[in-house]
Amino acid sequence: MEERNTKHVLMIPYPSQGHLNPMLQFSKRLSTKGVKVTMITTIFISKIMHLQSLSLPSSLQFDFISDGYDQGGFAQVGNISTYLSQMKTIGSENLKELIQKYNSSNHPIDCVVYDPMIQWVLDVTKEFDLLGAAFFTQKCSVNYMYYHVYHGLLKLPITSLPISIEGLPLLELKDTPSFVNDPGFYPAYYEMVMNQFSNIHKADIVLVNSFYKLEDQVVDSMSKLCPILTIGPTVPSFYLDKGVPNDKDNDLSLFQLDSSAINWLKSKPAGSVTYVSFGSMVCFSMEQMKEIALGLLGSGSNFLWVIPTMENKNIPKELVEEISSSGKGLVVNWIQQLEVLSNKAIGCFFTHCGWNSTLEALCLGVPMIAIPQWTDQPLNAKFVEDVWKVGIRVIVNENGIVTREEIKSCIRKVLENDVGSEMRINAKKWRELAIEAISHGGTSDNNINDFLNKLKRS
Ligand SMILES: O=c1ccn([C@@H]2O[C@H](COP(=O)(O)OP(=O)(O)O[C@H]3O[C@H](CO)[C@@H](O)[C@H](O)[C@H]3O)[C@@H](O)[C@H]2O)c(=O)[nH]1
């Protein structure tokens, strides 16, 4: 029976898949350590995600509030500034009511963990005088760079190269997050990432979805600025330390999952398949999609390529047919990525370097070919290639295209060459370090315990 003095944490993620899942995994870890967790997301998300297919511990539940866009979420308005400001106005009122509802129940709230992309949640938290913990989904180095920009420690536009910041490797412009490289390109997103730091000084704890050894120098440097606890990787424990029993049907997904592609994968020899996926937001031009398809076909390797429905229009039908008749490739709309990455048939991951994908590849010991596009991805790719040495980054030609020849050559390097075997050795090392961090007594496990101790004292 649940004890009356069980601590109750509200988790408030930014309502998109790449932000919901890391918090969900963190919530599971907390609930195995005896905390009651309520994840709050939007009514729209509750309609589109397959929440009912999750097997959650009894101490972890969902609750929903309106962000003002119950029918279509962000897509209903299509403009990020309007969406964020409406979500703030409507969301803060609804969040206040929700906290009041729990505070007059048997399970009052002790702490609110929030995504700094919706930094106003911390202001609501402090109105109720509750413990507030920021939860950064992206890695420490990215947030450290934004912190520098926000506080004027790194002036934009950048005029002197390479960029030298304590704790980070020397950076060229192409290695920096797109909001640093070109702040005018997506002004509303720029504002959103910078606003994360507008009230961070009020946060009692700053949690980061990374682990110490992955970014030790930057964690040490950033810890001098705010109370950081690295608590990652937030990958389901089934794939790591087996800490949460039966934790395999892991993530919230927009799609019903289909096992036929996994069976296709299982029929392929070990290390022979290139897995290709560019996350949920990247959209390539028709020309780039064609080069990717021809590069994959020309590489002679097996490949499994996720092309979300929204991107189908950017690839000529004949090419999809050529892929399926080649016997080498399979195209799907969505797949259980962790199941794919953990399959021994996978030899490398051709990725946009979204943080979740990068972390998942590191955790499963899979070398990467990086084709970063925007936001945090360029800095992730820099670390993949030069710091962790688990992959290579494609070269973009003078017309902004990655050619089929370049793609073929990268796949061959990673799958066949000595360079590739070195990356595989490094990738295995990072997997072991990730497991060590999250296992009993590891840095992330200790940091989660520190968080719990703060909670108990609150
Ligand atoms: O077929 C698929 C494709 C993806 N995934 C999962 O979807 C997530 C994708 O996340 P991520 O790799 O971070 O990419 P995006 O969805 O593009 O994430 C956005 O949000 C991230 C977190 O802020 C940023 O790091 C990225 O740059 C930004 O594009 C991962 O967990 C994948 O395992 C699947 O399960 N199946």
Strand order, sheet with most strands: 3-2-1-4-5-6-7
Q: How many β-strand stretches?
A: 13
Small-molecule binders: uridine-5'-diphosphate-glucose
| CATH domain topology of the largest domain | Rossmann fold
Secondary-structure arrangement, i.e. CATH architecture of the largest domain: 3-Layer(aba) Sandwich
pLDDT averaged residue by residue: 92
Number of domains: 2
Query: What coarse outline follows from CA principal-axis ratios?
Result: globular
Individual helix count = 18
Please give the alpha-carbon distance between the first and last residues.
Answer: 23 Å
- Segments where pLDDT lies below 50 for 5+ residues? none
Main sheet: strands, sense, barrel: 7 strands, parallel
Helix content: 40-55%
Q: Structural class per helix/strand content?
A: alpha/beta
Beta fraction = 5-15%
**CATH class division of the largest domain:** Alpha Beta
Name given to the CATH homologous superfamily of the largest domain: Glycogen Phosphorylase B
